[in-house]
Amino acid sequence: MHYLTLLLTAIPAVGLLLNIFLFYVIWTNRRVASAYSGFLMISTIYTFCYALGTMTVDPMFVNDNHGYTIFSLRLVTFGAEWSRYGAIAQNLIFCAGFVFSFVHTLYRYCTITGKMSFIFDTKLGLFFVIFSPIAFSALWLFMIIATQEPTVERLGDRARMIYEMFQVNLTTDGFTGGQFWDTDGIRWLDLNGALALSFMSGIIFQLNVFITWKLHGHVKTVVCSQATREAQAQLVAILTAQLCVTCITEIIPCTMVIWGGFLGLSSLCPYSPVIANLFPTFNVCIIVLLVKAFRLRTLEIFSFCIKIKAKETFHSAYSITSINPFVVDKGNAPQ
């Protein structure tokens, strides 16, 4: 088993377990409004699927100064076509992360400021919330299919690199990615497709930054009680932390894969999915550590487990000393 496969199994597995625990924390918590808890549970389910998808696909990324290639190391054993489907699925999983982040930020903006509240309070608004991620993902999928059809020319010299690194022989199928230029000149379809994907991911991230910045200004100037201000500041802190995590686990890996070859970062490209799959773990840490209600609930759960363990240990020790005649209570032993 390749060491990258081990990492892309172990790291998502930790994320899976932590998100199951977070779901339980949210489900059993009674200190947070049910609407926000429900939204967080949906987000947790997505993050769970994100980690599970990576474990299933086992995506590998390779680039050079001509372009980049994505394929599935696990699914390629079932055929090159399955590897390509896995690469497309990994693209969509990655794309959905941007969309969920934007919807979450927009939801917090509407509930805190009271502006554009119709988006989440009316049927038409909810239709927009549901339809937009589907439309965004469909556009992303269209760009992948239209500009990254697998061919020998589109694979380039990375076929040799992939064989040397993973002992996988890709030819005319089994991958997605683009070849931006070759001996015949610039391949405009591939280049424009990569630019479009970069623009789509970048614009969503920039919208998140802008909305979070507007929220920060609103919380500082709004007239409200101290308790309300602290609660709103906590939510802005969560959004800011999630922005940083999105930048580290999505924007940087995406940029590294598509454009890293031009910057001499090809040796780091295979580690980009490892960085990206820290997202499920980081997301749990942010929510548990920054949301006071969930932090308290987590402490309650661990406190209960520790008490149960201590109680079992006490009863076990008591039963041993009472049954085993060779165990002596030193406090009552004759001196």
Give the strand line-up of the largest sheet: 1-2-3
Q: Rg, please? A: 25 Å
Order of helices and strands: HHEEHHHHHEEEHHHHH
- Approximately what portion of the residues adopt beta-strand conformation? 5-15%
The CATH superfamily is Rhodopsin 7-helix transmembrane proteins
The share of residues in helices is over 70%
Low-confidence residue ranges: 312-335
Structural class: mainly alpha
Tell the overall outline: globular
Q: Tell me the domain tally.
A: 1
Tally of DSSP helical segments: 12
Gap from first CA to last CA: 62 Å
Task: Please tally the β strands and state the result.
Answer: 5
* Overall mean pLDDT: 84
- CATH second-level architecture: Up-down Bundle
Sheet with the most strands, sense and barrel status: 3 strands, antiparallel
CATH top level? Mainly Alpha
What is the fold named in CATH at topology level?
Rhopdopsin 7-helix transmembrane proteins
Question: What would you say this structure looks like, in words?
Answer:
It is a single chain. With 335 residues, the protein is mainly alpha-helical. The chain has one domain (3-290): Rhopdopsin 7-helix transmembrane proteins. Helix content is 73%, strand content 6%. It is built from 12 helices and 5 strands. The protein has helices at 3-28, 34-57, 80-113, 118-121, 123-147, 152-155, 158-166, 188-221, 226-259, 272-276, 279-290, 292-323; strands at residues 59-64, 67-72, 176-179, 181-182, 185-186. The strands form 2 sheets. The chain has a 3-stranded antiparallel beta sheet, with helices on both faces. Strand 1 and strand 2 (67-72) form a beta hairpin. The longest helix is centred in the N-terminal third of the chain and has 34 residues, at 80-113. This is G protein-coupled receptor. Keywords: Membrane, Transmembrane, Transmembrane helix. The chain crosses the membrane at residues 6-27, 39-62, 82-103, 124-146, 194-215, 235-262, 274-294.
